[in-house]
Design goal:
Elements (H helix, E strand, L loop, with lengths): L3 H6 L4 E6 L7 H10 L2 E4 L5 H4 L9 H12 L3 E8 L6 H4 L4 H18 L6 E6 L14 H6 L3 H12 L4 E6 L8 H16 L5 E4 L2 E2 L8 H9 L4 E9 L4 H12 L4 E6 L25 H9 L1
Parallel strand pairs: 1-2, 1-9, 2-3, 3-4, 4-5, 5-6, 6-8, 7-8, 8-9
The protein binds (3S,4R)-3-hydroxy-2-oxopiperidin-4-yl beta-D-xylopyranoside.
The site of (3S,4R)-3-hydroxy-2-oxopiperidin-4-yl beta-D-xylopyranoside (XIL) has 6 residues, from loops.
């Protein structure tokens, strides 16, 4: 096939991108989007500061624009993200009472998932809950500090009740290298969830890589998680300087793991990237295919 999405579909996978609602009207942007990609993640529009800026007052307008676009163009959606310590409004981070925070968190998950019920392939239920460095433990956040370790399980159980048809993912960065303590911490959590019947269907590996690309153990990491009985997905891929070898190796790691369901790059053109100084994407600022594009297409 001659596009990323169609080529990925030949093995039952998807190829997606992050999308900003405000760029849908740009024809260079939307032409590439609709030609190449069959999965969309809203880059910011489903985050808590946008969807529930004050308690009980929901704003779905920006994300609805993206979902409508996806439906009109036959693209599936990843929901990103329900519980995250960043892009979290001050009214949430200031809650100190556990019963209040639990009901606020559960109501947020239920309300957002209800609004998009049946329209989301997979939700990043909890994003970036683990600490960097050697601890292998959860990071500090209002959810961790007020609700304790159980907040992740609580979020996943609530999410399953809200939309039983959506896949429920845990999503994080720097969990691609198998021997890292952070990777091991997430692996231990997923193993525990699977053994106790806590609902979890997938793990998202953000895959924000430096210019060296993925760690040598990336495929091992993906297959070890998959062996726990979850899908794995590359959810926010970008690689500094976008080397062809590095992109090719990343795609091959996914292709070699049958439960690797698909790949999402974190933006379309370099100029769309959150790390645009790194030129980490598959299209240049004019929307032309870069060398890495061909490497990805041949590896799919
Ligand atoms: C980034 C967006 O790309 C930026 O536009 C925004 O300013 C900050 O967030 N991990 C995630 C994503 O899970 O939501 C982040 O997206 C990048 C890191």
């Amino acid at each position: 096939a001659s596009t990323l999405g169609a080529q990925a579909a030949q093995s039952g996978r998807y190829f997606g991108t992050a999308v900003a609602a405000g760029k849908l009207g740009n024809s260079t942007y939307s032409t590439i989007l609709d030609r190449e990609f069959n999965m969309i993640t809203p880059e910011n529009e489903m985050k808590w500061d946008t969807t529930e800026p004050s308690r009980g007052s929901f704003n779905f307008g920006p994300a609805d624009q993206i979902v409508s676009h996806a439906q009109a163009h036959g693209q599936r959606m990843r929901g990103h993200t329900l519980v995250w310590y960043q892009q979290l409004p001050g009214w949430v981070s200031g809650i100190g009472d556990a019963n209040t925070l639990r009901s606020v968190m559960d109501n947020h998950i239920t309300s957002v998932m209800n609004h998009y019920k049946g329209k989301i392939y997979a939700w990043d239920v909890v994003n970036e809950a683990f600490a960097d460095g050697g601890s292998g433990q959860h990071r500090s956040s209002v959810f961790q500090n007020v609700l304790g370790n159980g907040f992740i399980e609580e979020a996943f159980r609530t999410a399953r009740s809200a939309d039983p048809s959506a896949k429920l993912c845990y999503n994080d960065y720097n969990i691609e290298n198998w021997s890292d303590a952070k990777t091991q911490g997430v692996y231990t959590m997923v193993r525990d969830f699977k053994s106790r019947g806590v609902p979890i269907d997938c793990v998202g590996f953000q895959s924000h890589f430096g210019s060296n690309g993925p760690p040598a153990s990336f495929q091992t990491t993906l297959s070890n998680f998959a062996a726990l009985g979850v899908d794995v997905q590359l959810t926010e891929l970008d690689i500094a300087q976008a080397g062809s070898t590095q992109y090719g190796n990343t795609v091959k790691a996914c292709m070699n793991v049958s439960r690797c369901a698909g790949i999402t790059v974190w933006g379309i053109r370099d100029s769309d990237s959150w790390r645009s100084g790194d030129n980490p994407l598959l299209f240049d600022g004019n929307g032309n295919k870069k060398a890495a594009y061909s490497a990805v297409l041949s590896a799919l």
